[in-house]
Specification:
- The structure is a single chain.
- The chain has 300 residues and is α/β, with parallel strands linked by helices.
- It folds into three domains: 3-86, Arc Repressor Mutant, subunit A (Orthogonal Bundle); 91-159 and 267-293, D-Maltodextrin-Binding Protein, domain 2; 164-265, 3-Layer(aba) Sandwich (D-Maltodextrin-Binding Protein, domain 2), CATH 3.40.190.
- The chain is built from nine helices and twelve strands.
- It has helices spanning 3-15, 18-24, 29-43, 59-86, 105-116, 129-137, 200-212, 226-234, 279-293; strands at 48-50, 55-57, 91-97, 120-126, 143-146, 155-170, 180-181, 190-194, 218-223, 240-243, 254-259, 265-273.
- The strands form three sheets. Strands 3, 4, 5, 6, 7, 10, 11 and 12 form an eight-stranded mixed sheet that branches. A two-stranded antiparallel ribbon has the order 1-2. A two-stranded parallel ribbon has the order 8-9.
- Helix 1 (3-15) packs across helix 4.
- It starts with a helix and ends in a 7-residue tail after the last helix.
- InterPro entries: LysR_HTH_N, LysR_subst-bd, WH-like_DNA-bd_sf, WH_DNA-bd_sf.
């Protein structure tokens, strides 16, 4: 039994006339009749009652037509699903992200991607950049929101934006009343910082800028997430320097204050495996690029 025989059968069943059915199928009548006879022979069932002037489905033919139409519909749906998968419209995409990406860029890109590709199963995993690099090597994630620099030949990077850092202090701290402060002003303060192993480039830049300002920062507590930094600052344990986009994370008992002159800067990038050939990855990068190209996330 061949798929074309099923299609021939449905056309004859619709027309109930071999001549008209042959015209629709762009073939002559004798081969069409022969194909229907072969189908009936394989099934061991008579599908049509035939006379010189009349063609009619048998009861078996009517039942068989219902089942064949279901099969043909499923085949068309399967074909459409395969095409959508090939074009990156269905499937599963695993995205890693640093926690600070949720303050700004990640929700916007994810929302835009899901609106365009609602049938893609998007899985999100929060993890610091070093863990994401390991996850890429283990093929556990497909895309990553990371903090460069990253020197790994396996990965390609797309810069999303750069931004300056600001200070975050307890709401009752004297600096909370000021529009801006200098790094020198922080020389006697106790710092809450994300640990170096979690975000080495940012940690090193903060330490370097403090040294340039003439002091070594007093680090009271190292933590693993920016959100934890803000929570501990709110509790009065110290102050910190954080990316400007962190100010979108509203906590009642902290105040964000601009840093004068050469404040530390950070960058957000998208990472993916250089040899990646997934259309889903390409579609996600295309969605992200639209926001980048529109300049919606250029930072001061």
């Amino acid at each position: 039994m061949e798929l074309r025989q099923l299609k021939y059968f449905t056309v004859v069943a619709e027309e109930l006339h071999f001549g008209r059915a042959a015209l629709r199928l762009q073939m002559t009548q004798p081969p069409l009749s022969q194909q229907i006879l072969q189908l009936e022979s394989e099934l061991g069932v008579k599908l049509f009652e035939r006379s010189k002037r009349h063609v009619e489905l048998t009861n078996a033919g009517k039942i068989y037509l219902q089942e064949v139409l279901l099969v043909l519909t499923k085949l068309e749906e399967a074909k459409a699903s395969a095409l959508r998968a090939q074009n990156g419209m269905v499937g599963r995409l695993v995205v890693g992200f640093v926690g600070s990406a949720t303050f700004d860029i990640l929700p916007i890109i994810v929302r835009g991607f899901q609106e365009q590709f609602p049938n893609v199963d998007l899985i999100l995993h929060e993890m610091p950049t070093p863990m994401q690099i390991e996850a890429f090597h283990n093929k556990e994630i497909d895309i990553g929101f990371v903090r460069p620099p990253i020197f790994d030949p396996l990965l390609s990077l797309l810069s999303v934006y750069q931004e300056s850092c600001i200070a975050v202090v307890p709401k009752l701290h004297p600096f909370a009343q000021r529009a801006s402060i200098s790094l020198e002003d922080l020389s006697k303060e106790q710092f809450i910082l994300v640990e170096r192993e979690i975000w080495p480039s940012w940690y090193d830049d903060v330490i370097s800028k403090c040294h340039d300002a003439g002091f070594s920062p007093i680090i009271r507590q190292g933590v693993k997430e920016i959100q934890t930094v803000i929570g501990l600052v709110a509790s009065g344990l110290g102050i910190s320097i954080v990316p400007r986009s962190t100010s979108n994370f509203h906590v009642r008992d902290v105040t964000y204050v601009n840093i004068e002159q050469e404040a530390p800067r950070v960058e957000m990038s998208l990472a993916w495996r250089t040899n990646e050939n997934s259309n889903l990855v390409k579609q996600f990068l295309d969605t992200a690029t639209k926001f980048i190209d529109c300049g919606k996330h250029s930072k001061g």
